[in-house]
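user: can you give me the structure for this one chain? tokens are fine.
assistant: on it. calling the predictor now.
[tool input]
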Amino acid sequence: MSETSSSSGPVPFRNPGWAGNTGAFDLSEEQVRGDDYVGVRPADGGHASGAATYPYMKVEKSPEAPLFEGPYRERFDKILSRYPESRAALLPALNLAQELRGHISPETMREVAVLLDLPEAYVRGVTSFYTMYNKRPVGRFLIQVCTNISCNLCGGDEVLASFLKHTGTELGSTSADGDFTVTEVECLAACGTPTAVQINSRYYENVTPDSVPAILERLRKKGE
């Protein structure tokens, strides 16, 4: 039985997060987990029923990009079609804006307010309430380390410290090369496989301080 350590001492059990293939198909862990799930997602959102459902943090951001044009305008219109009033479309509209620009600036808040015919103060209040919206530019890879109770007990603080060390950053700052921003977040809903880390739109489980350099190297090489 493997052990991991935390500030409170050794933890005698570690969930491997993979119980083997129990289905009818001979699939690898990578296939079951969807290791290559990040494919080409249609900028227009595909079918209207799913257009509002996938906030997606891209590696390359375009802070000065128009809001919204071309296929992004198509997705925006599909989002509006799913709600009885424009106010209900605010969160997916902000998700779309962040996907495109990488963060939600005051100017973006004003533009979204105009598009949805909402008071700017209301849009600003909603945006500032949710931590999932970046209010300032972030690196190509936004690294969010869970330090809530399960991850904390299994070394979350040490994982966070390792990411800060190996990216040469302080909490919330961006590395000199513009690649990495490291933040501390609440529960990422992977309590059975701590420590959980979300990087852009992708989850990493069972992360340890020693595994951090390999994750960063993969990001630098493969961009995902």
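assistant: here you go. The chain has two domains: 48-129, 141-222. The first strand starts at residue 4 and ends at 6.
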